[in-house]
Structure formats: C-alpha cells, structure tokens
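thread: overnight batch results

M.L. [08:02]
morning all. the overnight job finished for the chain we discussed friday. pasting input first so we're all looking at the same thing
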Amino acid sequence: MAKSHTLFPFILITSLFFLWGFAHNLDPILIPHLQKSFTLTTVQATLVDSAVFIAYFLMALPAGFIMKKYGYKAGIITGLLVFALGSFLFIPAANTQQYAFFLIALFIIACGLTILETAANPYASSLGDPATSTQRLNLAQSFNGLATTLAPVIGARVILTKGYTAAQLSTMTEEGRKLALAAEAATVKMPYFILGGVLVLIAVIFAFTRLPAIQTNEGHVASKNIFHAFKHRHLTWSVVAQFFYVGAQVCVFSLFILYAPKAAGISEVKAADYLGLCGLAFLIGRFIGTYLMQYYSSARLLAVYAVISMLLCLIAIWGTGIITVYAVIGICFFMSIMFPTIFALGIKELRGDTEFGSSLIIMSIVGGAVLPRIFGYISDVTGNIQYGYAVPLACFAVVAYFGFKGHLVKMKQEQLSVSTIL
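M.L. [08:03]
and the structure it wrote out:
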C-alpha cells in the first residue's frame, strides 16, 4: 500500500491508542478515590481493575466476530460509541454514589475498549510493509504511552485534590459526611463527560473516512472457528504471555498510588506526579524500543527487557524510601514494548486466523482482572504492599520465556502451509 494512501488512516488509528490509554490511566486515580469514598480494602478496591479486564475476556470474541462479518471500520465505530456510553454513565454513577454503578460504567467502557483494541492492533500492524509490522505497532502504541503520562497528572488535579482527609471526615456528622463524599464523587463527572463527547466526535470522523481494506487471509483458508487459531503454537504462547504481562502492568500502574505513599512515604498527589513520570518513562521506552528494533530482534529485546524488569521488581520488594519509586519507574520503561511486541509476534503468520487470533490475545487481557487481586491479597495478608511485587516478578519471568523461545512460529504437523521459522 502506498504511504500516501495509509498515512491519514494510520494517524486516525493511532489516536485510538491515545484515547484508550487515557481511559485506562484514569483508573489508578479512581482506585484511591473510590477506596476512600466507600471505605474499601485493597482487594475490594482492585474490583475497579476486575470490572475493566473481565470485559476484555467476555467481549473479545464478539469483537472478533464483528470484525470478521462487518469489517474493521464498523468495529472501530462500534467500540467508540460503547466507550462513550460508559463514559457518560459516570454522571449517574456519581449522582447515586453507588460503588456498583461505577463498576458497571467501567465495565461498559472496557467493552468498548475491547472492540477498539481487537480492531486497532491488527489494523495498525497490517497497515503497511509486513516486515515492519512490529515497529509500526510499537509506534502507534507509543501514543498510548503519551496518555499514560498525561492521564494521572490531569486526573489527580481534577479528582483527588478536592478530597477530604480521613481526620476531617471523622469529625463530621453522618449527614455531613454523606454530603462531603457526594461532593468528592462529583469530581469524576466532568473529565468523563468531556471524554465521552470527544469519543462521539471521533466516531463521526471515522464514519466519514475511507479506510484501506486489509487482507489477512491471502494464501490461507479463512478460519471457520476459533479452535483453528490454536493450531498456531506461538499464538498459544502469546496468549499466555499477554495474560501475565497485562497483569503485571495493571499491578504496577493501578496500584502505584497505593504503593508509593507506603513504600516511599509521599503524599497521594505527589505519588500521582510520580505516576506521570512512570507514564513518561513508558512513553520514552516505546520510542527507544521502536528505534532499537531496527537493529535487534524484537523477540530478543522483549526477553532482555523482561529480565531487567524482574531485577527491578526485587528492588521494589526489598528497597526502602524513594529508591522503590525509581525502581518502579524503571519497570515502566522496560515493560513499555511488551504489549505490542507480544501482540505482533503472536499474530505473525496467522493469515486467515488473524481476527480470531487477535480476539484470543485481547481475551488474555483478563490477566489484569486476576493478578492485581493476588497482589492486593498478598498486601493485605502481609501488611506490606511491597511484597505484592512478587506478582509482577513472576509475570515478567513468563514474558522472558516467550521472548526467548515461545514466540517461535510453529503449527501442528497437518498445517503444512506454515513452516517453522527461526
């Protein structure tokens, strides 16, 4: 495809990576906000992540069917509108002051994100020369990193700074406390209303934009069902690796504002600023990783980055003071390339199985619902949130294996059209 024909569609697709990155990275702000408003334990607060990532598991297959039957454009528009609906639901959620309502709104947002990611990741990967698909996807995902930088800083100043301390709440009457918490809950209305409006506008732009058709089944019979996709062994390993990677990422980002004040003795707002630095490290890591892939195998780079992340997890567990925060910032740098690289390596050579393969990898994002709860459980039982970093440590070990060996493209013997490579 000519570059002039694909440039604007690629820019438009890249904007989606920023949007879902912004939505995801408001969650670390919501967790301490809702934890205080509803007097939640760490495990209960992680239901925010559970509501989001369970949606990925439930919606990934329907999203793949939408793409297969109606195309990528229809999938993207559908995802944007569902995403917008969930954002608008934050207004009645804040009005009713029900934790369950917030979880429902987050679940609907995540349903939209699932559809978007199922469409946008393979589309960005396929929109150009196959030889540079991993680099292209990492470039698009870099704008997800930009959102990771901006969302915590903006969100903290809109949502957290108007809060009441526990001491202030304890001196209030029951009625006064309810009014104070209602005022706190109302701070989420404006950012999510603006986000919903932007999403509707972008959906309209997509509706009037002609996107190039992507052929994924050339030279390969189109997949009849999802079980056919499992014949690709490297896809199976990518599903496993993505499950553990996303679990690690959510542990690091979503629980950072709970982790940093206890590990380093800083305030929540200061922790949010450091979370912005985590996002900046994530962004820089994406750009540097994309550059390095011109000279080094993306799989080998993935494996090395995973091993370094494991070492930094040890500092996050056993370190004291601000060094623990710097270690987590380092983790964010080195895990930056993991999601797009695992995804691109996982859908490599799938051809007619690409849509279902993409759905399976997106389904594995449910790791973000499961593993942070284990992190929270370890933290609550031991009374030390730093010990929770044993979970990301184990996750990065799985990613390292995928980078060293699990990514090798293999199929069962009866599938003779694809040979073992590397």
